[in-house]
From TrEMBL:
It comes from Dreissena polymorpha (Zebra mussel). This is Uncharacterized protein. Keywords: Membrane, Transmembrane, Transmembrane helix. It comes from the Eukaryota. The chain crosses the membrane at residues 6-29, 36-58, 64-87, 94-116.
Length: 135
């Protein structure tokens, strides 16, 4: 008779133990799921960080490219300025040469004028001498 009374109690205890074990297993599964979710979140965060880093790198590269382009433009401008200066110098040299040529032409004209003038006077003197000799 005592066994009949204890048996349902033992069965109840076993069922309670099984329920507790099931609850523990469920809690463990929930914990595992939470851990997995946390890991996934961490992975997502890492991916986001990596993406941000990549974007930053791209931005830096773009900035570097822009800087390089600016430098190239500046160099081109400097070259253009140098070329302009050289052209100006060449023009100045040409002007000086022209002036020199003008001076030479003027000098030659003066020399030619004096030569003609001198010859004219020389011929006049000869004529006067001839005239005086005839008398």
């Amino acid at each position: 008779m005592g066994l009949i009374l204890i048996l349902p109690l033992l069965l109840l205890l076993l069922l309670l133990l099984l329920l507790l074990l099931l609850l523990l297993l469920l809690l463990l599964l929930l914990l595992l799921l939470l851990l997995l979710l946390l890991l996934l979140l961490l992975l997502l965060l890492l991916l986001l960080l990596l993406l941000l880093l990549l974007l930053l790198l791209l931005l830096l590269l773009l900035l570097l490219l822009l800087l390089l382009l600016l430098l190239l433009l500046l160099l081109l401008l400097l070259l253009l300025l140098l070329l302009l200066l050289l052209l100006l110098l060449l023009l100045l040299l040409l002007l000086l040469l022209l002036l020199l040529l003008l001076k030479i032409i003027i000098l030659l004209l003066f020399l030619f004028y004096y030569y003609i003038d001198y010859n004219y006077y020389d011929e006049e003197e000869e004529e006067q001498e001839e005239n005086s000799n005839h008398r």
